[in-house]
Design brief:
By secondary structure, the chain is mainly beta. The protein has one domain: Beta-grasp domain (Ubiquitin-like (UB roll)). Helices cover 12% and strands 34% of the residues. The protein has a five-stranded mixed beta sheet, with no helix packed on it. The longest helix is centred in the N-terminal third of the chain and has 8 residues. The protein is globular and about 40 Å long.
Length: 65
């Protein structure tokens, strides 16, 4: 199991950030995801595995001026 924000999500072997976002069916364009204390940017979502028992924070893109 992994914790994503206030939810608990079932973990599976080899789960990547892209897999997680697909399973959550979340359409937000996240720029960065934090896994425990490690920050991962969007270009690395497909190749970054999430370890079991991790705490994941989804960080959305923010625009302003």
């Amino acid at each position: 199991m992994i914790k994503v924000s206030d939810k608990t999500v079932t973990w599976h072997e080899g789960m990547t950030i892209s897999d997680l976002l697909s399973e959550l069916n979340d359409p937000h364009p996240y720029a960065v995801v934090r896994i425990n204390e490690k920050y991962v940017s969007r270009p690395n979502f497909d190749k970054t595995a999430i370890p079991d028992d991790s705490e994941v924070f989804l960080i959305p893109m923010i625009a302003g001026g």
